[in-house]
Write a structure and sequence with these properties.
Layout: H1 7-19, E1 32-41, H2 52-55, E2 59-67, E3 82-89, E4 95-101, H3 111-127, H4 133-141, H5 146-153, E5 157-158, E6 166-175, E7 181-190, E8 196-197, H6 199-203, H7 210-219, E9 223-231, E10 251-262, H8 266-270, E11 283-285, H9 290-306
Antiparallel strand pairs: 1-2, 1-10, 2-3, 3-4, 5-8, 6-7, 6-11, 7-9, 9-10
Length: 309
C-alpha cells in the first residue's frame, strides 16, 4: 500500500493541476516584482509588543507585489487576487515578514479544507463545463467559506499596486515587555486611496501592466502605505481566518511604509520565500493553522522552482 503524501505536497500538486506547472515560478502569486523602501513606526504598538520594527526607529523594507495566480501569463486586466509581501530588515541582521492580499477574509479555515478546495477547483477545470459543480459542492459543505467567495466575485481590477488595500488575514499574537499578549490582524492602507479601473480603462491597458505602472509611478515620487493593527477582544476567533472581527474593535496605526524604487536584483528576490511564520521577538503565531501550512507549502514550491521544475 502506497503511503499518502504529506498534505502540503498534496496541496502543491493539486495547485499545479489548476494553474499548470510553470518551471521556475511560484505555485501561487507567480508573477511579481520587488521594491525597496523604509518603514517608520509610530510607536503606538510599543504598549503591546517588543518587536523592534514596530517600536524603534525606521527600518529598510523589501516589498513584493504580485498577481495571485499560479500562472504567470494570467492578465492583470482580470479581477482577482493581488499580493503584497513585506520583508522588514532588522538592525541585528534578521528579517521578519508580513504577507498581505487584497481580500477581507480567507477562503477556508483549516489546511484540510484548503486541500478540499483546491481539489474541487482542479476537478472543475478538468471537467471543463464551466458550471463549477465541484466548487459549489465544496461551498455547500463549508458555508463559512461562502462570504470570501462572494467577496472574490465583487473584486474590481486594481489601477495600481499602490492604490490597493491589503490584509494579512491570519491572527498573530503580540507580546509586550511584561509578557502580556494581544491578538492582532494587520492591514495595509494605501495613502493614495483605493482605485480600480473601469471596464473601458482596462481594455486600453497592457495585459500585464501593473509592474510597469508601479515602476512609472515610483519614478514620479515615493508611494506610501500605513500599517494598521486591529486589536482582538478575547472573544474573537483567532483560529479561523474566514471570520471577520467586529467593526467596533479598536485599531491602531502602527507605522508608514514608503517605497522609493525597484530592487537592484529582481532575479535574486524572485527566488526568495516571503513567509508568514518568519517572525521576530515580540510576535508569535496564533492558533490559526494556516500559516504553518503556508510555510510548508512554500518550501515544497521553493524546492521545485529552485530545481527548475
Amino acid at each position: 500500500m502506497t503511503a499518502e503524501l504529506p498534505l502540503p505536497v498534496q496541496v502543491v500538486d493539486t495547485m499545479e493541476q489548476i494553474d499548470g506547472r510553470h518551471p521556475g515560478y511560484r505555485r501561487a502569486h507567480a508573477r511579481g516584482a520587488c521594491f525597496t523602501g523604509t518603514f517608520t513606526p509610530t510607536g503606538e504598538a510599543a504598549k503591546y509588543t517588543t518587536a523592534a520594527h514596530l517600536t524603534g526607529g525606521p527600518v529598510p523594507v523589501t516589498v513584493r507585489y504580485s498577481n495571485g495566480s499560479g500562472n504567470p501569463a494570467v492578465p492583470d486586466t482580470q479581477p482577482g487576487g493581488r499580493g503584497m509581501a513585506t520583508r522588514f530588515h532588522l538592525a541585528d541582521g534578521s528579517v521578519t515578514d508580513v504577507i498581505g492580499v487584497n481580500l477581507p477574509r480567507f477562503l477556508v479555515a483549516t489546511p484540510e479544507q484548503f486541500l478540499d478546495l483546491v481539489r474541487a477547483l482542479a476537478a472543475d477545470k478538468a471537467a471543463g463545463k464551466g458550471d463549477q459543480a465541484h466548487l459549489q459542492g465544496f461551498l455547500a459543505a463549508h458555508p463559512d467559506s461562502v462570504p470570501a467567495f462572494q467577496a472574490l466575485g465583487l473584486m474590481g481590477i486594481p489601477a495600481s499596486f499602490g492604490t490597493t488595500a491589503y490584509r494579512a488575514l491570519h491572527a498573530f499574537v503580540w507580546v509586550n515587555a511584561d509578557g502580556d499578549q494581544q491578538a492582532v490582524r494587520y492591514r495595509w492602507a494605501p495613502v493614495l486611496g483605493e482605485q480600480n479601473l473601469t471596464a473601458d480603462q482596462a481594455v486600453n491597458e497592457d495585459q500585464q501592466f501593473l509592474v510597469g505602472e508601479f515602476v512609472s509611478r515610483l519614478a514620479e515620487g515615493p508611494v506610501s502605505f500605513t500599517l494598521h493593527a486591529t486589536l482582538a477582544d478575547p472573544s474573537d476567533p483567532t483560529n479561523d481566518a474566514t471570520k471577520v472581527w467586529p467593526d467596533d474593535r479598536p485599531e491602531i496605526e502602527v507605522g508608514t511604509l514608503t517605497l522609493t524604487g525597484e530592487v537592484e536584483d529582481q532575479d535574486h528576490w524572485a527566488a526568495q520565500i516571503f513567509d508568514p511564520t518568519n517572525l521576530t521577538a515580540g510576535i508569535e503565531l496564533s492558533d490559526d493553522p494556516l500559516p504553518r501550512l503556508r510555510h510548508s507549502a512554500y518550501s515544497v514550491s521553493y524546492d521545485r522552482r529552485s530545481q527548475g521544475e
